[in-house]
């Protein structure tokens, strides 16, 4: 009966030790990660309950390895070996991920990344710490195997022998001393202590609250299995009642006025919208993609049938219908299109024409506002200076000079001076001699938005917001690639302009009658998170990714092309394709909408060979504690130079004075200098959300617009600029003037409304990966809430007027407890805002799922 185990006398104790060491190590790490957000008295009271499942897993492993006879014993050993292998991989990953980011692993997110080629490479980038921790725990398991086996054998055999007269004879496979026969009293003492402890722990376990302690008590491999369970299907067919009902009362409704369709939330069932939407007078014979809600039976029955089929696919059984967005029924919508264009822009338009033939949107990876540009005296700047506390005055001046040379192009794009106190302008000019110089006239250059936030800290959700003017869906990863965008994206609108020209527009030589072409370019992969499909989904006619330029048949392929990170090539590899796109548009008489996504500022912040690396932070020995931030700042300097190259190209090709260039960060990037959790993954810190937004045009006045807006305002602002600058022909202007009234975001070309009739301009930001946390802010108040969408995270409140860098956060697992603390520390108004924010945010989450025709399950 014992032949198999006896052939491997060290296998049983080693496997048992692996289970115990890895299981308890995982739990200890988990408790350490929650040390900041669980009160000490509660933590100590419930501490024994956290390890209950871990003890049960250990006991199961002991029984499977020790007490099963014959073939059952072999099966038990195989099961324990399998669980041990899973534990080794899972727990090593937990430790490695915590070492790199300070956050918890989310197994469903990790599995999604692992199934993606580029995502898998991203995971492999953290393989070394995973391997190191795995080796450490593996070695510890080997060393502790005799002791762990001896303790469990002694304890569980004593309990088993005393309980109901069972005879649990121990199998010894280690060279331990012979067991003396235990006195009868000792046997029952072990049983009594075990039972008493068990009943006490079970009692406390029953008494303790579910949140957050069920999450804290999670034990591998159960947490791993639970992450892959599907939730029940949910389909939302109608808009839920707005929680702040007094703000949408009929006495506040607004009538139609010209192109404005009015505002009457709750006046009709949103499920009936599709049947009541009227086609506009300029409607084409057939609608292009993106205009689903105007597709009507009798006019375009094929598309409507497809939309209804999509509805059945989304919600099987036809329990829901195809939902649409209706601005008239949106209780959160605030429009500022009734206000005049900003006065300086009006004055500029009186003095000279501001032609916008082309629109470029530069989406900048991980672009924090505080480094676009870096400014002397800023919080980040002061952190760097303070880190050099022992530096001489001469060394500090030299450091200041290098910092001044980091973002000279960003200074010129935004019009914001870095304010570096250098001894002479000549020195500064020498430091930035090779950078792009803005040829715009003094006081000209465009609109710089101060106070903007991203709509998502997941790159491609952010891209959907900036290109389509929609709120991304708060679910993990890119469901957006599987559904129709509920608003037409800017590329869809430009395609509609082309279609209307084909149907009735006579050819003309001026730019207003030329066709648009939309192109997307980046030097890195398009395979990550299904970006190729996303580009098609949101309307790009042509996309160029790493996969298009890496083959020998590519037009500008050359030997020596080297990937600088797990995503792809350095930025300049896309330069000749960018130049070709511009030259082809000029030759073909086309108007360009071009998006370029930068990439170097993404982790791991690799630079091409030969690029000099600066030490902005002090280096202590072989590795600096500030190394990740230092690498990031070097990549910022590199991208700043690259943006200058792009601007020079636009000037060299002769299109600068007729091109609107929109610069926007997809999200920020948190480091240890900002927060104890680094990166964007499930990290709601403000450093991940403040981003630059600039609308650059050499003929527009330099203008700072202070607006706590999100990137969903980009699309309506582009349309507003095209209309206001007379850059569209009569038909296109008529279309654009109607369509701009459909969007949720306000135009940044007009005074931004922080509130309207008591309603606040709410700003929602989805936190990477999408389905677990939500950033909630308002233009009408300085407060911010990080709202957990699952029970695995805390509520977090901050007052950005007093704590702009979120150093002193208020955090709690229970919302009502959080409200009480906020009221005590920040006052009644803050607590009232917090309660409203939570209600509105939960309504917004359900509304996004409805509008995206989403279902879970």
UniProtKB/TrEMBL annotation:
InterPro entries linked: Alkaline_phosphatase_core_sf, GAG_Ulvan_Degrading_Sulfatases, Sulfatase_N
Keywords, sorted A to Z: Membrane, Transmembrane, Transmembrane helix
Keyword Transmembrane: yes
Tagged with keyword Transmembrane: yes
Pfam families: Sulfatase
Superkingdom, taxonomy of origin: Eukaryota
Transmembrane spans: 12-32, 44-65, 71-100, 120-144, 150-168, 188-207
Domain Sulfatase N-terminal: 537-722
Alphabetized SUPFAM superfamilies for the sequence: Alkaline phosphatase-like
Gene3D superfamilies registered for this protein in UniProt: Alkaline Phosphatase, subunit A (3.40.720.10)
Name recorded for this polypeptide: Sulfatase N-terminal domain-containing protein
Annotated source species: Talaromyces stipitatus (strain ATCC 10500 / CBS 375.48 / QM 6759 / NRRL 1006)
